[in-house]
Each structure stands twice: as structure tokens, then as C-alpha cells.
């Protein structure tokens, strides 16, 4: 049982690092535009408090967190040119970003979602 928990923790840490690799990939000048676009979508969704399937729905609510996010990260990582991916991994490994919580990014993402929701509401309420 303890071994399974250790494996899950290491996979979660790897997933968190991969998210920051996608952030660095977005900034890299050699990254193709389409990959930059996918990277930012995956990162925003990973940090977003809003899910496609709300977490309060039993079992299904966590499917996006358990399946969709890792699948999206894996897909985008495969699309990144090898030299860019290696550069970005080195940057992330040297960085302290993975070790600390980024409240500024979280706040910005929440504010963006609130803005989108208000915009959608304004389309329907006239």
C-alpha cells in the first residue's frame, strides 16, 4: 500500500513539472504556434477551478483531472520539438517554480473565468 502511494506521489510531481515545461514551451521562440496554443489551453485548464465535468458528480467529476489533463499534457509534449523540450526541461529543473504555489497565476485564471462567465451571462440577459 505504501509503495502505491509513493508511485502516485512521484507521478503527481512529474505531472506538475510537465505543466511547468508546457509554460516554458509557450515562451520558447522555436515552439510552433499551434503547440503554443495547445500548451496554454492545457495549462489554463489544469490550473482552472472550472472543469468540463464538475467535481461534485460522483466518479465522473474526477475523470477530467485523472484522465483528460494527463492525456492533454502527454499529447502536447509529443508535439514539441525535441531540442525545445530538452531546453524547457532544464529550465524547469533549475527553477524553484515547481516547489512553490503560484497564487498570482491562480488569481489571474480565476478572474479570467469570472470575466468569461459575465460575458456569457451578458449575452443571455438583456
TrEMBL record:
InterPro entries to which the protein is assigned, alphabetical: DUF1232
Membrane topology (UniProt): Multi-pass membrane protein
Pfam families: DUF1232
UniProt domain DUF1232: residue ranges: 36-71
Keyword Transmembrane: yes
Key words, A-Z: Membrane, Transmembrane, Transmembrane helix
Keyword Membrane: yes
Regions that span the bilayer: 33-53, 59-81, 102-125
Main location: membrane
Cell compartment(s), UniProt: Endomembrane system
Name of protein: DUF1232 domain-containing protein
UniProt source species: Bacillus xiapuensis
Amino acid at each position: 500500500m505504501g509503495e502505491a502511494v509513493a508511485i502516485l506521489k512521484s507521478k503527481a510531481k512529474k505531472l506538475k513539472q510537465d505543466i511547468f515545461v508546457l509554460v516554458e514551451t509557450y515562451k520558447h521562440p522555436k515552439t510552433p504556434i499551434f503547440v503554443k496554443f495547445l500548451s496554454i489551453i492545457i495549462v489554463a485548464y489544469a490550473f482552472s477551478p472550472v472543469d468540463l465535468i464538475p467535481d461534485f458528480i460522483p466518479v465522473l467529476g474526477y475523470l477530467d483531472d485523472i484522465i483528460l489533463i494527463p492525456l492533454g499534457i502527454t499529447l502536447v509534449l509529443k508535439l514539441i520539438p525535441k531540442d525545445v523540450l530538452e531546453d524547457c526541461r532544464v529550465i524547469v529543473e533549475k527553477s524553484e517554480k515547481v516547489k512553490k504555489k503560484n497564487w498570482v497565476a491562480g488569481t489571474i485564471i480565476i478572474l479570467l473565468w469570472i470575466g468569461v462567465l459575465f460575458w456569457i451571462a451578458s449575452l443571455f440577459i438583456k
